[in-house]
Amino acid sequence: MIRFQGLYYNGKNNQSEPIDIECRHQNLTFTVNGNSFHFPLDKVKIPTRVGSTPRFIELPDGAMIESQQHQEIDQILTQFQKKDQLAHVLESKWSLAVILAIIFVITLFYSVKDGIPALAKIASKEIPYSWMKSMSQETLTQLDKKIFKASKLDLQIKQKVQADFQTLQEQFSDLPLKLQFRDGGIIGANAFALPDGNIIITDQLVKIMDHHHQTLSILSHEIGHIYHKHSVRSLLQNSAIALIVFVFTGDIQTFSSLAVAAPTALINLKYSRDFEREADVWARTYLKSQNIPLTRFSEALTKLKESKPRRNKKIKIKDDDSYIELDFLSTHPDIDERIKEK
Ligand SMILES: [Zn+2]
After folding, report:
1. What pTM, to 2 d.p., does this model score?
2. Over the stretch 174-213, which tens digit does the pLDDT of each residue have?
3. Distance 259 CA to ligand 1 centre (A)
4. 224 Cα: distance to centroid of ligand 1 (angstroms)
5. Distance 59 CA to ligand 1 centre (A)
6. Rounded mean pLDDT, 30-50
7. How far is the CA of 222 from the centre of ligand 1 (A)?
């Protein structure tokens, strides 16, 4: 308990009464003319010390206490502030928990959004080529069994496409590029790249192009995917996100979906818009370097768009649960945007 003396002003006239004030249990208590007053400290305004000038303590009912017993008043102030801070922290504990939870969710969101793709990019460089090769070959074997047929293109047309492709192979000799022709069957006009450097182009795609540079621009786009290792990065990203979902939800189904064989995952792979854009940029940079007009690329995309009005529909592969979503087939919603880009 702290005691001090002061003068009481009732706030209605200038008269003052000398009083003894007690401070205990966070209350100021005093008696004026036989009337007892109790005021909680948090309702009272105690000014800070200014030299030795008297302090006027404002009471909630408009009355005031004047006192020069600075030492005692400071003591009250210090004790009250400490308790006040503690109470404040305790009260705000709940909101603190909410803030921490929000920060956690935001951090998680950004680590999924930016962190995992960044990690996947680093990890993709560590994947051995032998792994990418066996995965790619298995994928192609499955597609050959279920969808593709041998190419029926004229040798002359094939040679022309192959000649353009050879220029690319020579210029990017550090990439293990290889071109494969196939009759696309139900998937029609399409092209896609496997992680081992194989690019599959369908007869239907070659046929709808009316200039060999249109075909070349599609091939360049596919090489862009290989150059940036998009398929392996997508596989890694998809697994990492499923893994995080599993860790936080404990949903074993999410995790077990990872157990699907890599070739099936590759068949179902859908590149992100960012990857499509990156492959487009790669293609356009190459075309520019060869003085090939960029309009060839836009023309090719337009032709692909027109070739299959229902191309955004997934095609189910005969006897298993995989759906084929091959590159251009899967990117339909963006295609208009991509045609316009320069
Ligand atoms: Zn693509």
Report:
1. 0.61
2. 999 999 999 988 888 889 899 899 999 999 999 999 999 9
3. 25
4. 8
5. 74
6. 89
7. 6
Distance (Å, whole) CA 198 – CA 126: 19
Q: Residue 251 C-alpha to ligand 1 middle, in angstroms?
A: 32
